[in-house]
UniProtKB/TrEMBL annotation:
The gene is dnaA. Plays an essential role in the initiation and regulation of chromosomal replication. ATP-DnaA binds to the origin of replication (oriC) to initiate formation of the DNA replication initiation complex once per cell cycle. Binds the DnaA box (a 9 base pair repeat at the origin) and separates the double-stranded (ds)DNA. Forms a right-handed helical filament on oriC DNA; dsDNA binds to the exterior of the filament while single-stranded (ss)DNA is stabiized in the filament's interior. Keywords: ATP-binding, Cytoplasm, DNA replication, DNA-binding, Lipid-binding, Nucleotide-binding. Residues 144-274 form the AAA+ ATPase domain. Oligomerizes as a right-handed, spiral filament on DNA at oriC. The keyword DNA-binding applies. It is found in: Cytoplasm. Belongs to the DnaA family. Domain I is involved in oligomerization and binding regulators, domain II is flexibile and of varying length in different bacteria, domain III forms the AAA+ region, while domain IV binds dsDNA. SMART domains: AAA (SM00382), Bac_DnaA_C (SM00760). Residues 360-429 form the Chromosomal replication initiator DnaA C-terminal domain. It comes from Roseovarius rhodophyticola. This is Chromosomal replication initiator protein DnaA.
Length: 452
């Protein structure tokens, strides 16, 4: 299977890239939703991850739909380093990747992703508090709240914000020793230190940090000795008035199997959550992202309405949103098409289906007829008077936007109308939406009601 994917990659990336970068990579296995690849060294892993990671994910997930992530580990000497694609590589001649100093020697930290900066972080209602708090910490001024605890569901920007803080501190306070790592890496380092009898080094190093960021702290739940060590590290740094930033997928109090004393410690500072994205934020992110894609792929065009469609239809997880856009551009650039709604629906069918809201045609019809105060039978029935025809068109439009039903199918469900009638209705509402404030408002109200 990997052989076949490789073959496809060869066609996409070209012979040179292939020989140099893809050929030496092996699929080590798939665990859960992660496809793990063996790479010859961490520089190679970083390069492949950054340049072909998205593409590989796309290819692999075509064959193994459960795969949502690709990871890279160094094939030889695996135990010596953490195995995520962002591992800092000692050999890597990439100046930006050495943002974290002082941890050479036995302790290496995760590299920072240079796309995760404040510049690329789109702020909206759901994340404005988290963003403001992160900004404050990134100034590197006197510690006012400790720790900063960021929590929220997967793909909402926790890691992005933490990296952004680290990048900003790099410039604002180059004198500070900033360390970012995942809780998993913390545990790994701890276990390794125990095994190598280097606990003194471990303690000394962690206690010499000025700003410590630990990502996904829920990972240490249930891991007693790691918790214990984390607690001591945490206290030692807080006592010295060093800034700590923690992230987790839920609030401190809700992390099961985490010691009470740790929970209460984590709650001492500022606890802020990243809410699920709303439509406006998703649209903002899509606009920013597609702007940079359009620069990367000059010659590609995007039809109106595509981003709005995606913002409506794809769930709250920003990673999924980005993945969809990446695939769409990759696909369009391969086939040399304009990016249209149809292309998006076609090439993102699986993603759209997976994040489909459970809105049915019936619900839309019911909601719309209630809104316009007409009977459901009149909405579906044959009468063409304006007072029925307009709500009918609104409902058709919403069906097209909010469900993945085809035009003929929508037509059938509207009393057996032809798909051209549906198309006409949808177009009419698209026009009216910009000309007629009342219609625009109706649509907004209806959509909110239907999204629940
Ligand atoms: P988390 O750590 O919360 O699971 P990440 O920080 O890894 O999520 O974010 C997932 C992806 O979504 C990343 O590529 C990140 O850049 C992007 N992302 C999340 N929120 C935003 C945002 N507000 N603006 C721009 N990109 C975002
Ligand atoms: Mg994360």
């Amino acid at each position: 299977q990997w052989g076949q994917i490789k073959q496809e990659l060869l066609e996409t990336v070209g012979r040179n890239n292939f020989k140099h970068w893809i050929e030496p990579v092996d699929l080590a296995g798939i665990t859960g939703d992660v496809a793990l690849f063996d790479v010859p060294n961490s520089f190679h892993g970083n390069y492949v991850s950054q340049n072909f990671g998205e593409l590989m994910l796309f290819k692999v997930s075509n064959m193994a739909p459960e795969v949502r992530r690709v990871d890279f580990k160094v094939a030889a000497n695996i135990a010596a380093r953490p195995s995520d694609g962002t591992t800092r590589s000692e050999q890597a001649p990439q100046p930006k990747k050495t943002a974290i100093r002082a941890f050479d020697g036995p302790l290496t930290c995760a590299a920072l992703d240079d796309r995760f900066t404040f510049d690329t972080f789109v702020v909206g209602k759901p994340n404005e508090l988290a963003h403001a708090a992160a900004k404050r910490v990134a100034e590197g001024g006197p510690v006012t709240f400790n720790p900063l605890f960021l929590y929220g569901g997967v793909g909402l920007g926790k890691t992005h914000l933490m990296h952004a803080i680290a990048w900003e501190l790099e410039t604002a306070r180059p004198d500070l020793n900033v360390v970012y790592l995942s809780a998993e890496q913390f545990m790994y380092r701890f276990v390794q230190a125990l095994r190598d009898r280097r606990m003194m080094d471990f303690k000394e190093m962690f206690r010499s940090v000025d700003v410590l960021m630990v990502d996904d702290v829920q990972f240490i739940a249930g891991k007693d000795s790691t918790q214990e060590e984390f607690f001591h590290t945490f206290n030692a740094l807080v006592d010295q008035n060093k800034q700590i930033i923690i992230s987790a997928d839920r609030a401190p109090g809700e992390i099961a199997n985490l010691e009470e004393r740790i929970k209460s410690r984590l709650q001492c500072g500022l606890v802020v959550d990243l809410h699920p994205t709303d439509y406006e934020l998703r649209l903002g992110i899509l606009q920013t992202k597609s702007g940079s894609f359009l620069k990367q792929y000059p010659g590609l065009n995007m039809a109106d309405g595509v981003l709005e469609f995606l913002a409506h239809r794809i769930s709250t997880n920003v990673r999924v949103l980005e993945g969809a856009l990446t695939r769409l551009f990759a696909f369009a650039s391969l086939v040399g098409h304009e990016i249209t709604l149809e292309l998006a629906q076609d090439c993102l069918a699986d993603i759209l289906r997976a994040s489909e809201r459970k809105v049915s045609i019936e619900e839309i019809q019911r909601q719309v007829s209630e809104h316009y105060n007409i009977r459901l039978s009149d909405m579906i029935g044959p009468k063409r008077v304006r007072s029925f025809a307009r709500p009918r068109q609104v409902a058709m439009y919403l069906c097209k936007q909010m469900t993945s039903r085809s035009l003929p199918e929508i037509g059938r469900r509207f009393g057996g109308r032809d798909h051209t009638t549906v198309m006409h209705g949808v177009r009419r509402i698209e026009e009216l939406k910009v000309q007629d404030a009342q219609i625009a408002e109706d649509l907004e109200i209806l959509r909110r009601a239907l999204e629940g």
